[in-house]
Design goal:
This protein has helices spanning about 5-20, 30-45, 50-55, 70-85, 105-115, 130-140, 150-155, 175-180, 185-190, and strands at about 60-65, 90, 95-105, 120-125, 145-150, 160-165, 170-175, 195. By secondary structure, it is α/β, with parallel strands linked by helices. It has one domain (about 5-195): Rossmann fold (3-Layer(aba) Sandwich). Strands 2-3-1-4-5-6-7-8 form an eight-stranded mixed sheet, with helices on both faces. Helix 1 (about 5-20) packs across helix 2 (about 30-45). The longest helix has 17 residues, at about 5-20.
């Protein structure tokens, strides 16, 4: 499918999610399908970033999938990787996307990886609350958009949340954090998302 067609599919998926059409597994989707939909939505969110080319130079757009030491964290990482694997031809900013698994051990090692690879985003799996302040510092210093599926982490300084509700998934944006992490999201995304953080309810 052509990049423009994928963009249309992604925007349609976002609209369906926010309109209340659930993308959750309990509505009949298996884990793989759900992971693929969420991965696609993350890529379309990145496509709204006017600073993507500056933040993430190179021939490909890299997305870190960060896991902690626990089994649940690694399982969430593996679900995200499976989702991205379903989208081998989808591009962001006209470039191919590579999802890269990263095991978080310490901030120095993680910062070195971010400095070397210039990821556009980091999707942070559960079980890394102990490292959240360090991850936020790296995100700001290296201009990496931090993504979570937990709203508390978005309110505390991650840029993007893809949050499961009772009947739907919702895109949540901490606009101040996104700006600190170097992103400049277009109005199209901000009209679709719920904003949290400073000055927001």
């Amino acid at each position: 499918m052509a990049p423009r067609a994928w963009l249309a599919v992604g925007v349609a998926l976002i609209a369906l999610v926010l309109a209340g059409r659930s993308a959750r597994a309990d509505d009949g989707d298996d884990d793989e399908t759900l992971a693929g939909r969420r991965a696609l939505i993350v890529l379309r969110i990145l496509a709204y970033d006017k600073a993507l080319a500056t933040r993430a130079p190179g021939d490909e757009v890299i997305v870190f999938i960060v896991a902690g030491p626990g089994a649940a964290s690694r399982a969430e990482r593996d679900r995200w990787l499976a989702g991205f694997a379903l989208l081998p031809k989808v591009k962001a900013g006209g470039r191919p996307v590579r999802a890269m698994p990263v095991d978080y051990r310490d901030v120095a090692g993680f910062d070195a990886l971010a400095a070397f690879h210039h990821p556009a985003a980091m999707i942070v799996s559960e079980g890394l609350g102990f490292a959240a302040p360090a991850l936020r510092r790296v995100a700001r210093a290296r201009h990496v958009v931090a993504v979570s599926t937990r709203e508390t982490e978005v309110r505390d300084g991650f840029a993007i949340g893809l949050i499961a509700g009772d009947s739907r998934d919702e895109i949540v944006v901490n606009l101040e954090a996104a700006r600190e992490q170097g992103a400049r999201f277009g109005a199209g995304l901000l009209q679709l998302a719920r904003l949290v953080g400073a000055g927001q309810p």
